[in-house]
Amino acid sequence: MTDTSVGIDAVEIHAGKLKLDLAETFAPAMGDDPGKYTKGLGLYASSLPDTYEDIVTMGANAAHRLMERKGLEPEDIGRIDVATESAFDHSKPVSTYIAGCLEQVFEGDFHHANKGERKFACVSGTQSVDDAYNWIRAGRNRGRAALVVATDTALYARDDPGEATQGAGAVAMLIDEDPDFVELSTEQGYGSADETDFLKPQQQFPSVDGKRSVNVYLARMREALVDYESVGGDIHPDDFRLGPFHTPFPGMVRKAAVLAYRHITRDTEIEEELAEEIGRQPRPEAFDDEEAYTEALGEYTDALKDTDHYQGWYDRTIDPTLDLSREVGNWYTGSVHVARVSGIRSLVEDGEDAEGEKLLVGSYGSGAQAEIHVETIQENYESEIEALNVDEQLAARYDLSFDEYEDVHDAHNFDEETSVEEFTAPDGEFVFDGWGRMGERKYRYVE
Ligand code: CAA
Q1: What is the pLDDT of residue 415?
Q2: 332 lines ligand 1 (CB under 6 A)
Q3: Which end of the chain is less crowded, N or C, counting CB atoms within 10 A of the terminal residue's CB?
Q4: In the chain, what are the domain boundaries?
């Protein structure tokens, strides 16, 4: 068992190469006010995959860039874990396909790397990071690092309320000792229960009870926060510079943030300072029944939302983590990892010295499980952020018309053959290259 620092050494993002503009293209076609998406959900655009892109190509492209940038060879990687909710095979893991792609462009191979696939909706990206952390801390890594890839084509059925929150992209992370980017805490909190809010029983597009899923997110996150505090101690708003949370859409995080703030300000000087303006937080013992207590708590929370205290904390701690999500939509397993990058990137852009600052990271997966842990920003975070090319990727996306969007959506229902032509030209990347004789998907690197 090693006690060295372990965390995320490097990160790379690969966004789907198509863009659906929600205000300009989606809202008019759906007969909706664009404000429902931009203000209500907090989303401007979705990244969608071109016809030659899928979870393998996006994951392999992110991992390829990460390995090249860090000067890594396959023998430096002892483990490849893929987290996804969009897998197309119940037996052969996506990590084998990604390793196969990478072996086309690197000299060595990954024959001695342990490969797997993690499933628990969106939280499985963080679970894979945890698995890698545990493997390294247990001293089983033989000096090698782990590659974790969170990759999804997060598409909903046409006309499902979730359609506006779609997205596609991959996040590749290198988990290693003495990390350059963020160190992970040993302490974690969990909130987990058997829930039926969002599931994909043998189907590409999910069955979703959208309204219920929002309440389940809030309930499990709260449980995880309380569980974290039982090992990490009470949380105070000033303890954390950023709070990257799983972001199915920014409006979801807005709902969660005020509940979290209410919880972490209880019994603090902030609650006292706010008492004159909005009173103290209701306590259950002061009420005869649960309903009256819940109502009072709701009224307090509504008032809290409008205070300068809360607004200042939200603008500083939460809002910067949502910048990328607004432009790409939900990436399921990659979403919280995009939020982390987004938040730290804003600190770099503002020229802030953030080394040693803490992040309160909230991951969530439907079905349902939330996990809270803490991360500490490391010395080389600035160069890790500056190496990203995510802005260039987003600017280069092909802007779909609504008719084109309908075609590309159908093309990604994996039950169907497609005749839809590609919208962009692949350049220095892995592409889907048709089907093999056993029904496997084939890939090729395009120079
Ligand atoms: N201007 C401003 N705001 C507007 C507006 C306008 N013109 N029109 C509507 N709004 C607001 C609404 O008031 C609402 O805000 P509040 O929730 O704060 O009241 C918001 O826009 C959304 O409007 P609706 O509630 O009417 O939207 P909807 O019912 O069509 O869809 C949803 C909302 C059910 C969440 C849907 O997007 C959905 O099903 N999403 C997929 C499921 C999901 O993401 N759930 C989140 C938790 S589960 C999870 O996190 C796992 C995961 O990744 C899937």
Answers
A1: 65
A2: yes
A3: N
A4: 6-446
